[in-house]
Structures are given as structure tokens and as C-alpha cells.
Design brief:
The chain is of the alpha/beta class and 564 residues long. The chain folds into five domains: 117 residues, Helix Hairpins (Orthogonal Bundle); 113 residues, Rossmann fold (3-Layer(aba) Sandwich); 83 residues, Regulator of K+ conductance, C-terminal domain (Alpha-Beta Plaits, 2-Layer Sandwich), CATH 3.30.70.1450; 116 residues, NAD(P)-binding Rossmann-like Domain (Rossmann fold, 3-Layer(aba) Sandwich); 71 residues, Regulator of K+ conductance, C-terminal domain (Alpha-Beta Plaits, 2-Layer Sandwich), CATH 3.30.70. Helix content is 44%, strand content 19%. It has 21 helices and 22 strands. The strands form four sheets. The chain has a six-stranded parallel beta sheet, with helices on both faces. It has a six-stranded parallel beta sheet with strand order 14-13-12-15-16-17, sandwiched between helices. The chain has a five-stranded antiparallel beta sheet with strand order 7-8-11-9-10. Helix 16 links the parallel strand 15 and strand 16. The longest helix is centred in the first third of the chain and has 42 residues. The relative contact order is 0.07.
């Protein structure tokens, strides 16, 4: 019962709500006056017909007729009475059955529900809020980022300008605040000056406006903005952005790194302090046909095989894991170890055919530039003539990639690698299946916009898939002093955690971390000293930091078992 007075208090303290209640009361007064007049006229006509009734009966008759109930226990006998009854009936239909419900909904129920909705999507945060991440749009990147923020216990808030969108996201379980993105007052109400980071991932012009607005109220809060075009980078920095990420450029470079250049070099895909993570194809090397134990890479080159990619599926490396010609190794070692591996197993193929890139947007063009930097030629298949660059026309093939003649012209039957980089996941899945049927042994590297389509692209035949959402989320996460997380491939992370209390003093054999969580301990760090491939029979130091590798699911499993 205490809830009703509280709700009324919040409702009536708003001026629009008070005006709505007054309008409803005016209508009810008008209706009361009309019922009273009809009751008076009822008595005059009844006296005219020689009937006598009480005033209560007059009100009773008026209400039953106006509400169309018409019990029939009190009736007029004259034509005048019947005409009056018809007038009362028609006015009752208009006032009670049409105007009253409409007025109640318009001036009371609708404002009430609107106020309840506004309470679900507040316009401010508590004054003591600090250390939170402010996100100014909801898209695949921020959706993926929110999952990681929750995993690592960062507070966040989604700033949404549209009420309906804010309510939808609130009902989905997100922490939402409603406000205009270009208003300094909005950022004051959400304590932007105390935020850990303001991240904006909208279009370049809106990102510029947001960065400039936030900078009005705080000179120190870090601002991260994404840029779709190179020309926007300087403008965003001038507007106040500390970090400007060209996610399209970054994704294109990541796709190009997954392309085999016809050689067997181990290509570095990430760095974790002094540890380097690399991928190396097994084909055309003496490693093909051997097991991990038989390869003896740790003894010969100093590198450790963390896992293997087989047709886009990552598997932890075990001593009896067989290395086939289609296997891609995931290696870890110091820089000297990677160089030693390359000296031992370098083999240059005679296949120098250009890499085929399907999709000539920002990502496809970025992949092409990255390939040229590696000394690899490429051809871009693009069906929109306006996207073909005049200064690079010889590297484009105009046409639909679904047509075999277009792909043949691009060299798909001769190339060793295909990059599928369109922005539509359905198109990427379709083209991946098509190219895999055409070339069963070609390396296919595909882009996914939504993380949920990564597994589908792998099933379609892609060897490697890079998600725009995951890459963007990880890039932003590193700006939050998360130098202890590295995405070495889509869905595969290297992360560092302080030794959980449950593991301190146990050996790796006793802890059995891989069996429990599917994560592999790569190394541990004590002070400035990193112990790579630690002895499984040595106790884990309590003051050390563990460096592990695992899929996203394995990472979640580790935190569930050993929550910090």
C-alpha cells in the first residue's frame, strides 16, 4: 500500500502530470453537471406525466440510461419523455463510452505510463558515481564490449537519446541513461568528468560532436572515438579525442595477416610483453605428418606449440596431436625463438598468384594495402563501380562475385588465398560456401560483422574468421589499462590474471587447469621475470601472475572456477 502514495507523489510533482490531472478533473466536473441537469429535467417531465420519484431515483435513472444499461424499471409514457430519454442515451454514449475513456487514457493513464517509462530510463546517475565507462551508442562493437566489461567487473552506462530505444535496451538488461548526445548537461548528469572512459562508435560527424561536447565539461576524461575515414582522424583529435580507432583499417590488416604468402614463415599476430604469438602453416615443411611430440620444436627452436587451427577450429596442442599439411600452428616464444623457427622451417612456394579480395569497401582496401606492405599482390572483386579507385584500377575486377566468370577473371582458380570482406554476414557465408566448393584446398579468410555468425562461417568452410565486433571491443578494452588481454584470433584470447588463492602453491599437474577450464598456462610472471612453459611439477607462486590462452568460453570457465 505504501507504493501507491509514493507513485502518486512522483506523478503529481511533474507539471505536465498535474495539468493532465486537472484536465481530467474538468471533464469529470462537466460530466457531473450534465448528470445533475438531466436529473432535474427528469423530475419536471415525470411531474408532467403525473409520476413522482425521489432525487436519488432521478440520478439513478440518468446514470442507467447514459451508461446504456437501461434496466426498464422506470420509463416515460409521453413522447416528450421518450425524446428526452433518447437525448440522454446519445449524450451518454458520447460522454461515457467515448470521451471518458479517451480523456482518462490521454490525460491520466498515458502520462502515468510515460512517467513510469522515464523512471526505467533515468536521465542521471547517482552523484557518487565514478570509474564508469560511458558508451554513446549501441551497436555490435559496444554490445560485445559490454560483455567483456561485465566479465572484468567494469561499471558502464549506455547513453541513449531515444526513449523507446532506451526502454528496449533496459528491458534487455542493459544499464541505460537517457539524454541528448550533444548536450553538456547530459554528460554532467552522468558524471562524465569522473568516468574511466567515454567511448563513441557512431558516425564520424556525430563522434566529433560528442567528443567536442564532452571536452567542454572535462579536459581530463579519456575519450575514444571510431573513425570510418582517414580524413576524420585529425578532426576527431582536434575535437578532443584521446584515441581514434579506424576499425575498418584494423580489421583489414588483421585479415591480411591471416593470408599465406606462399611461404612457411611464422607470422607474428600479437605481443604480450616480451612474448610473441605467431601462426605458421605446416604445409611444405618437414613437420607435416608428425605429432607435436615428434616435432620437438621446443628443443630445436625454443618455441612452444600452444594449439593448432584445423579448418577454422582451434584445438589445444597435446603431445599426440597430429600435424597435417592443412594445419596452422599457434606458437609462442621470444623474438629470438620465432626468428630461429623461421630459419629452420622457411620454405618459399612458387605460387605467386595475387590474393583475391571479395569486397572493395574500407576493409577490403585496407587488406589490400596490408598485403602490398608484405610484398603480395592482390585483386579486388567489386560490383559497385563507384568504389573502384581510379589510381588503382588495374587491381580491380568489376562484377558480382557470385558469377564464376568474374571470379575466374580475378584468378580465384589459381590463387592460394581468398579474403571475403563484405559488410553483410549473409553474403559472406554464401561466398564462403561457394569458394570452398570451387577450391577445396584454398585458404579462406572471412570477415564477420556479428559475433554470432563466426561459427557459421567456420562451418561454411572459412579457415579464419575475424569479427568486427570482437576486434573493436578488444581494441577498446585495451584502452582501459587492460594490457593483460590479447586477442590472438577470433574467439581466442591470451589473458593475464593474478594467481587465484585456490591455485597458489599447487603444481600445474595438481591444479589440472586445462582439464577443468580448457585454458592452457603459457607462462607466469614474478616481478619482471617471465617463466615460459613452466615446469608442471613446480608449485605456482602465490605472488605471480598467470598468462593463459583459451577460447572465450574457456576464459569464462576459468573465471567461474577461480573468480578473483
Amino acid at each position: 500500500m505504501k507504493l501507491i502514495p509514493t507513485q502518486l507523489y512522483y506523478f503529481l510533482r511533474h507539471r505536465p502530470s498535474r495539468l493532465s490531472v486537472l484536465n481530467l478533473l474538468r471533464f469529470l466536473l462537466l460530466l457531473t453537471a450534465l448528470v445533475t441537469v438531466y436529473s432535474v429535467i427528469f423530475h419536471y417531465i415525470m411531474d408532467y406525466e403525473g409520476q413522482s420519484h425521489s432525487w436519488v431515483t432521478g440520478f439513478y435513472w440518468t446514470l442507467t440510461v447514459m451508461s446504456t444499461l437501461g434496466f426498464g424499471d422506470i420509463t416515460f409514457e409521453s413522447d416528450l419523455g421518450r425524446i428526452f430519454s433518447s437525448i440522454v442515451l446519445l449524450s451518454g454514449v458520447i460522454f461515457l463510452l467515448i470521451l471518458l475513456p479517451f480523456t482518462f487514457i490521454e490525460f491520466f493513464y498515458a502520462p502515468w505510463t510515460r512517467l513510469q517509462n522515464e523512471k526505467r530510463a533515468p536521465t542521471s546517475l547517482p552523484p557518487n558515481t565514478r570509474g564508469h565507462v560511458i558508451l554513446t551508442s549501441f551497436d555490435p562493437v559496444t554490445s560485445n564490449l559490454i560483455k567483456k566489461l561485465e566479465q572484468y567487473h567494469y561499471s558502464y552506462v549506455l547513453l541513449i537519446s531515444d526513449l523507446e530505444e532506451a526502454l528496449r535496451l533496459h528491458d534487455l538488461g542493459y544499464r541505460v541513461v537517457r539524454g541528448n548526445l550533444d548536450s553538456p548537461d547530459t554528460y554532467r548528469r552522468i558524471m562524465a568528468e569522473r568516468a574511466r572512459l567515454v567511448a563513441t562508435t557512431a558516425n564520424d560527424m556525430l563522434n566529433t560532436n560528442i567528443a567536442f561536447t564532452v571536452r567542454e565539461i572535462s579536459e581530463s576524461v579519456p575519450i575514444m572515438a571510431t573513425a570510418n575515414f582517414r580524413a576524420s582522424v585529425d578532426i576527431l583529435e582536434l575535437a578532443g579525442s584521446n584515441y581514434v580507432l579506424q576499425l575498418g583499417e584494423m580489421l583489414g590488416q588483421a585479415l591480411a595477416r591471416r593470408v599465406s604468402g606462399g611461404d612457411t614463415l611464422a607470422h607474428v599476430i600479437g605481443r604480450f610483453d616480451e612474448l610473441l604469438f605467431a601462426e605458421a602453416p605446416v604445409g611444405n615443411t618437414p613437420l607435416a605428418g608428425k605429432t607435436v611430440r615428434e616435432s620437438a620444436l621446443r628443443q630445436q627452436a625454443g618455441v612452444t606449440i600452444l594449439g593448432v587451427w584445423e579448418r577454422g577450429k582451434f584445438e589445444n596442442a597435446r603431445p599426440d596431436t597430429l600435424l597435417s599439411a592443412g594445419t596452422v600452428l599457434v606458437l609462442v616464444g621470444r623474438e629470438a625463438d620465432i626468428q630461429r623457427y623461421n630459419r629452420l622451417y622457411y620454405h618459399n612456394s612458387t605460387n605467386k598468384e595475387p590474393v583475391v579480395i571479395i569486397g572493395g569497401g574500407r576493409v577490403g582496401r585496407a587488406a589490400g594495402r596490408a598485403l602490398l606492405a608484405r610484398g603480395l599482390e592482390y585483386r579486388i572483386v567489386e560490383r559497385v563501380p563507384e568504389r573502384i579507385r581510379a589510381d588503382n584500377k588495374e587491381r580491380y575486377v568489376l562484377g558480382d562475385a557470385a558469377e564464376l566468370s568474374v571470379l575466374q577473371k580475378a584468378g580465384v582458380l589459381e590463387t592460394g588465398s581468398i579474403i571475403i570482406s563484405t559488410h553483410d554476414d549473409d553474403t559472406n557465408i554464401y561466398l564462403t560456401i561457394y569458394c570452398r566448393r570451387l577450391r577445396p584446398n584454398v585458404r579462406i579468410v572471412s570477415r564477420a560483422t556479428l559475433e554470432r555468425n563466426v561459427a557459421t562461417l567456420h562451418r561454411a568452410g572459412a579457415d579464419f574468421v575475424m569479427s568486427y565486433a570482437s576486434m573493436g571491443a578488444n581494441a577498446i578494452l585495451t584502452l582501459l589499462d587492460r594490457s593483460d588481454v590479447l586477442m590472438v584470433a577470433e574467439g581466442l584470447d591470451v589473458f593475464r590474471v593474478p594467481t587465484p588463492a585456490l591455485l597458489a602453491g599447487l603444481t600445474l599437474v595438481e591444479a589440472n587447469i586445462r582439464a577443468k577450464t580448457d585454458c592452457t598456462v603459457v607462462a607466469w610472471q614474478t616481478g619482471n621475470q617471465i617463466t615460459l612453459n613452466p615446469d608442471p611439477h613446480v608449485p605456482i607462486p602465490a605472488e605471480a601472475e598467470l598468462i593463459l590462452i583459451g577460447t572465450v568460453a574457456a576464459e569464462h570457465k576459468f573465471f567461474a572456477c577461480y573468480e578473483r
